[in-house]
Amino acid sequence: MLNPADQAFAAQLTKAIPDLRIEAPEPRYLQEPRGRHHGNGGLLVRPQSPAQVAGVLRACNAARVGVLPYGGGTGLVGGQIIETGPAPVILSLEKMTAVRAVTGHVLEIEAGASLQDAHDAAENAGRLFPLTIASQGSAQIGGVLGTNAGGVNVLRYGNARELCLGVEAVLADGTVISGLRHLRKDNTGYDLKDLLIGSEGTLGIITAATLRLFPRPAALGTAMMVVPNPAAALALLELAETRMPGCVSAFELISGQGLAFLDAVGPQVHQPFAQRPEWSVLIEIGLPAGLDPQDALAGLFEAAEDLVSDGVIASSDTQRAQMWTLRENLPEANKRIGSISSHDISLPLPKLAQFIDTARRELVALGDMRINCFGHVGDGNLHFNAFPAEGRNRGEYENLRGRVAQVVYDLVDGFGGSISAEHGIGRLKVADLERYADPGKLAAMRAIKTALDPNGILNPGAVLAQN
Amino acid sequence: MLNPADQAFAAQLTKAIPDLRIEAPEPRYLQEPRGRHHGNGGLLVRPQSPAQVAGVLRACNAARVGVLPYGGGTGLVGGQIIETGPAPVILSLEKMTAVRAVTGHVLEIEAGASLQDAHDAAENAGRLFPLTIASQGSAQIGGVLGTNAGGVNVLRYGNARELCLGVEAVLADGTVISGLRHLRKDNTGYDLKDLLIGSEGTLGIITAATLRLFPRPAALGTAMMVVPNPAAALALLELAETRMPGCVSAFELISGQGLAFLDAVGPQVHQPFAQRPEWSVLIEIGLPAGLDPQDALAGLFEAAEDLVSDGVIASSDTQRAQMWTLRENLPEANKRIGSISSHDISLPLPKLAQFIDTARRELVALGDMRINCFGHVGDGNLHFNAFPAEGRNRGEYENLRGRVAQVVYDLVDGFGGSISAEHGIGRLKVADLERYADPGKLAAMRAIKTALDPNGILNPGAVLAQN
């Protein structure tokens, strides 16, 4: 059982780390983006070095006080919010934002820097850091790694995990692991980096990371193409990857329902097709010098004549930006409509089209709903969200919500998919993980948690249920 | 303390798993490729299913008998050899070789299959499994993953780790983890896959894996180019990657010493340059449709006129094969010469040229030696090996051997490199890991080992020293 981060503990902390300011958390540290959960936080600390982080953790561990790592606060599964139980110390690394080093291949950056900071640092070095998510202005590197963020460029460049070469991290007992490697190959012992990445702050606090930088493609091409159904979208992806192996960086599925939501509630965006297609894809490619991306996309369009009925190839940066603006505003339109239940799932590609058909059929059998299914279909990741019928609101579906999620997750599980593709488990999916995860995996996870954080102080209640 | 795998234990094992044959290990299970170490093995078991593997581990765990996972036996750091202490059960998965499934993106294959089997299965499906190492005819998938093998294509496609989507594995207590995911994105809990990969069989036994398949590039191009020094080789790499981002699949540094060894002791191979260059690189690219790789390499050669003094672009599959045959025979020539000390190291790219200069200087100051420095320079991995002066033999350098390794590793460590880039720790580098690893990392490794294998039965003495 943990103890609250109360004034007595604040006094201990001050004694242990005299130059660390201990604050009362402002309301922004107690919120999450959907505004549905409200946190309970005792003390806020914003350390300025790994040594201070180690000091905080040592003190919390000794006093059995919980530590809530708070990054940009953009997570969607409640990993950053403790609603009940003893008030934790909220640990924000927002004062640790330094770019420690940049080379042609590696960016060494502190965990409190935003993802946008990493993009900017890469661009200033003439390089690319490809991880791209809608919230990158706020999301911090620590959170991006803690949740193994994905986004739109995973198809070509991989998840946060694959883009990180090493981490500096602090364990529950204050042990600092200095692992800021600049190496593609390093087989010296267990892969702690990947254990910490995606552990959502429950095994250690990442304080800095080395991130892989890439050469910028000589030329980018972007297009939207209309397909009759998701199966055709996947066939188009296969064709694109066969013609341009490793060059397709994004392949996003967009449903007519999403476009209709944008039309109905905004944000107002430019839509390339006057008649809103039931299914379309946004495709982006980056090519070596010597190939024109517009020609390549035109060639793909031609070769895909059986799969694609209409298409627009961006002929300017403005058009390219318009296509991405459309895509990136889909979640905001969803938010304005208000979902009954949202699902961040992934599926093996050969099962994806069948899943969409089956899940839609089973959900509408439950009640009158609208489905907005969209996402990073190139890497198997769908955002499969259920919304109220037109003229109704989410409150009217309260009693269906749990059933909707269960139908979706049961199907996902049956198809060998994941109930959390890129958002993680946080606190909102702890029970789902218990239900769907392999029991052997859960047992091993608990053993590792106990080994590295025996008092359970790190992000208590996230990922794994508390004992 | 462990107990030996003696006849009494054999009787217990037979009782626990009646349909498992228990054998005496043939000599081939007690050898390693360099012939310098000889193993001690009590019993050999070759289970045919994860359930049988689980049975073996449960029995060994209960009786505190060590388990030595034996794959293709090609490892170079003694991970497959126990020389002293209680005789272990040698566990070979050579009877588990099934290709369980192949899709356009994923190969599901059992751990006893050879790496070549995986290549063949991918090719039969019109796809590519890119991990390529010289020993792939013998090396087994379980060992490839257990050691996180690298090889020549890491630059473009990544290590074994990045090519594996999921594993089925058995923990020390017989718990089976069923994690054969076909997913690029899956954030449901701790990353056990990556913890097991590279743990060299000390945390669990991988029994099957899902591997990523790739579209085959439309066209491959291969060339050898002569550079004045390693710094120029790295500048050439930078130029190649800038012109063809993501398309350079291999970039191998070859030293004149290596070519001289081939000339002196064979194997006889075709050498493209009549006058053996002091430094050259082998470069391979794979391009999208629409680009001719020979043109692209010619264009690179032209653009690199300040860096490259001579070059040969393969104009046929035969020529391409000749270049790779040269590269792949360098280790055999080394073996025939007989090294004083070999080092599988990696360095941050900006430090690599300076390392080669400095290390060479420091080593020749120790004694009269020849250095053959070659390797996967594109990913920072060097094989930096010291050989006797001409006319002398390795025996004469016995008293220098330890000092040579220490000079190399101290320098590597000082430059932020790795003392084991792709071969792992095994038993031969356990003391080196103790010396050079971050103490926090070692402490966390020990905690994890104790949590998952409290009796220390799995590959005892590998990676971490036994208590």
From TrEMBL, chains A, B:
Keywords: FAD, Flavoprotein
Biological process annotations from GO: respiratory electron transport chain
GO molecular function per UniProt: catalytic activity; FAD binding
Keyword DNA-binding among record annotations: no
One Pfam family it belongs to: FAD-oxidase_C
Boundaries of every FAD-binding PCMH-type domain copy: 37-216
Chain segments annotated as transmembrane: none
Co-factor requirement: FAD
Family designation: Belongs to the FAD-binding oxidoreductase/transferase type 4 family.
Entry-linked PANTHER family: BLL6224 PROTEIN, D-2-HYDROXYGLUTARATE DEHYDROGENASE, MITOCHONDRIAL
Protein name as catalogued: FAD-binding PCMH-type domain-containing protein
